Amino acid sequence: MVQIFFYGGINEIGGNKILLKSSSGNSTLLDFGLSFSTIKQYYDIFTRPRTGCPLNDCIQLGLLPSPREAISRIYRDDLDPVLHVDPTANAEAICVKDVYLSHAHLDHVHDVKYLHKCIKIACSAITKIVLEQVQLNSRMGSQLITYTANRLVDGQLGSLVRRDWQPGDAGELFPLAGGDFKCSMHYVDHSIPGATGLLLEEETTDRRIAYTGDLRMHGRMSKESQDFIDFVADAHPDALIIEGTRLTPGSESELPTEQAVEDKISQILKANSSNLALFGCSGNDLARLTSFYNAANISHRALVVDYKIYELWKRLCTVHPYNINIIKLKVYLPRQREGDYSVDNYQGNKSLTKLVRDPGSSSIIVKAETIREHPENYLVYLPRWHINELLDLKPAPGFTYIWSMSDPFDLEGEIAEDKFNAWMDKFKGFIEKVHCSGHARPHDLATMVNKIRPKLLIPVHTAVPRAWESLGLDEGIKIEYPVLARGITI
Question: pTM for the full model?
């Protein structure tokens, strides 16, 4: 008998925290992500979990599951001594042996930073590379790969702790839950490199469970998604844990495919060939960035990105199937600290310091003054949080900003959009919205499930799980809706 417990991803988009307990009592986690909907209820940029007791704060507010029963001893032993976390716990004493990460989005991985160092982490090799870059360049991604112990651990204070990462390749077999589950992950199409779906099998009971993570059927890697679906269908799973992000209405204005996004960007650049073009999208979405790269080439513009995107793309260009010429990329260098481009001004940022000190980087670095001279030659990545670079770029009236992300879905996002629009009005720019989702459309979800034909369908990662009932699923497919911390027996 296999039991599945849900501690996140219920009636919300993201925050997946799923525990599978084998017949022998060993367990594994499928993702351990941040619930954005819950954290926004209590925190903002001014109020955050207290540094001295983050576990206590997050557990009390429901951001983390309480450490008892199925998930006892899962948390770090250097945080919140008031919680009486057992500092002598080892791999044998912890029932949760490992965690599988489907991809590197924070709503699937963020809370891994609270997990005990003995819990192994399985994911694709690409996902680990992405998370290494996230930890290097983002406060939100800190403590995922390594962390500094907060108190005396193993006789040392402030020691660097390296987590037990075990990245793998798609299709190869690997164990989870101390070997109780035989598993294989497979690449799927999503809006971040390295995303995978998973099939688990407990050989002693012949139970098979599939987990989609996040996926879509309309991107550059749609074949990989279809191959995963075919593989799972051939396995005849007893249960399918599946995302349903787009069951929520509101994405009707999005374009149907990633290729359509690229074509639309090309049309916009052609129609605005004599002025500066800016754009914003997720910095980890290399599929979307490839669309901008291709459109820039067609329009005879250089694609200018920030140093974070450049580093990630450079690391992945040899292992990821997106065909770009890294030599053609340019990196925008903002002024910092004292307001000029002196090397000393970048000392607080290791990556930028390395870039500006590299004698060979002069051919890829682009400054605002260079872009001002010939704005028609560039397509520049400028996310909303760096929109104040317009003060240096000084674009001529009528410039274009291509917004390639989802529309705001809460009041905080609407306020941010109003401020962005104020900047665009100030500089007399035009906004073009060009986007397609990183998640499967409702009819694709239905086709997927009817192809796999699981005995049991378990919806997660959706605000409207009951919408599955109106998708026209084949007879014989039972739907069971997860309840917080209540086990589903397979």
Answer: 0.94
